[in-house]
Amino acid sequence: MRVLDSLKAAISNKSSVQMVADDPHLASEIMLLVRMMYIDGELQGAELDLFKKFCNTAFDIPEEDVPDVIKFLREYGYETSGEQAAAIFNDMPDERKIQLIRHMVTMAQADDVLHDSEVDLIARVSKVLGFTPEQVLEIVKSG
User: Most C-beta atoms within 10 A of its C-beta, which of 13, 19, 42, 46?
Assistant: First the structure.
């Protein structure tokens, strides 16, 4: 019986990649964070560390699965624009949209350098989510 129970548990457990693939909101948010990490052309250690922390604490993705999740999103999400990824959140409550903006801002600040391309991505996503520039500034201040 123990062997069957173990086998059933192994088969029914979804991998982190499968979990991301099955959840458009999760995939979109992680995709935006991955883009934020790579948008300045350099992946800094602080950005990757923060991303792993987000994956673990906010998305229940173990650290050892992060490389596979990044690979999946880079391979299958490359045709999705930031605006398209953000549009997935249009039906979500404002608090969830605010959380997305906060995560993106935190990721942009992880390397202590705020690049124009990072600001641009946050601005475009915020606009799709229906936030005014004033609202985004308030979100950043209150975060």
Answer: 19
